[in-house]
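Q: Could you write out the predicted structure for this multi-component system? I'm mainly interested in how the pieces pack against one another.
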Amino acid sequence: MAKITYIEHNGTEHTIEVKPGLSVMEGAVKNNVPGIDADCGGACACATCHVYVDDAWQAKTGEKTAMEESMLDFAEGVEPNSRLSCQIKVTDALDGLIVRLPESQH
Amino acid sequence: MSEALSHVVIVGAGHAGGSAAAFLRQYGFEGPITLIGEEPIPPYQRPPLSKAWLKGEADADALALKPESFYAENGVDLRLNSRVDRIDPAAKTVHLTDGNSVSYDFLILATGARARTLNAPGADLYGVMALPTAADAEMLKAALGPGKSLAVIGGGYIGLEAAASARALGAEAVVIEVQPRVLARVACETLSTFFQDYHRARGVRFELNVGVNGFEGADGRVTGVKLSDGRTLACDAALVGIGALPNEELAKAAGLTCADGVVVDLSSRTSDPSIFAIGDVSRRPAPLYERDVRLESVANALEQAKQVASVIAGRPVAPPEVTWNWSDQYDLKLQIAGLAVDADEILVRGDPASAKFAVFHLKDGQVRAVEAVNAAPEFMAGRQLIASRRTVARDKLADTTVSMKEVAA
């Protein structure tokens, strides 16, 4: 299990044990963490699972695909540490990961 | 009765119904929620049934909308294997077929749509199926594999996705379509041709301009599809994907206004102020297109689930979104935004031969819809252009050296 902390835009923290193999998005949705909508269920089709990856963790979450990059390009409030959380696979190496959620996914 | 103590009853435990329950809690609604579903399993996502799940890339857990514990933990009384017999709007009560009844302050109808069936001899043979439920999808998955063959009746998105998934599993696939091209009702010719070519190159056969008269079987199992031109195509499974019908019978019987879907306003309210209808079963206004539409998509189900949850939780309802949908076939991601209606011009950006292009549907120089194949910037910028309703620079839109950022700027 990897412990992931999701921090809502209002500061509320949710620390959750997520099974490796799931995505960071699934960890949130399956535990009802508000702020990650994931309308398309993880198909990289909607850009409603946008998160900011804590600086210390950016390298460990891997590279963005071209598809993810272009989806993010048009999302709101995008920063260099923006990711689509459906595209980050949870592994043991991500134990302790911290992601922050944007104010809105639309 | 105060709003906080209202009892919400949701009929239909699919993507829309399950999401409505979740949004109600997320928006702070504290009253009791009863979620009634016919199927034996808690709400799940349907899109993967013809996509990742069918190919074996997603398991049952991944399909689930929420973990099973979610409902009890959040005070949602989830009643599975339960069917509503009728609604009594005067008494604000729903009567279940098991004899129980539940009273409501707010009723949300999320009964979805059912697959249109083929009224033809042999349609009841084992192996002839539609794809509305996880149980059907299980049957389909079990029937596919190397050496097996799938006949898809109806060249719509679900049929094409199933054909692609069948090929991925090593099965033969043939798509039978009565129209001269696949996606005839939903896409322009450029897109139809592109998908047909892409599927053909991956071993899918097409039988176009031909109807289906029935099915042949042996020992109760389908063995072939009888075509209207007299031929019979052998198959181990037949998927009928010829559209869907709204499950609006309960609403009709309760006297709610229906017109191929339960008619609702932009807060998902029906003609009875205490009753809402969301998802595939509803017919809703599409203000950008000045018409009412029945949309079968996750985006619509979620948008309407948020609308009704907002009303009941006392929050402002968000303005309507540009509707969107997607389809996964092989390595193709098709993303569709808007409704391709009333267009007076079709503009293709990019080269279909590169499998990376977008079809824009324009009306009076404004983007009304976009179908983007492996073209996320076109999809994302297209959504913004559709919402803004401003006249787009055609020359820039057609020129792939001009970025979509610049086109939409």
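A: Regarding packing and overall arrangement: Chain B has three domains: 3-114+244-313, 117-240, 331-408.
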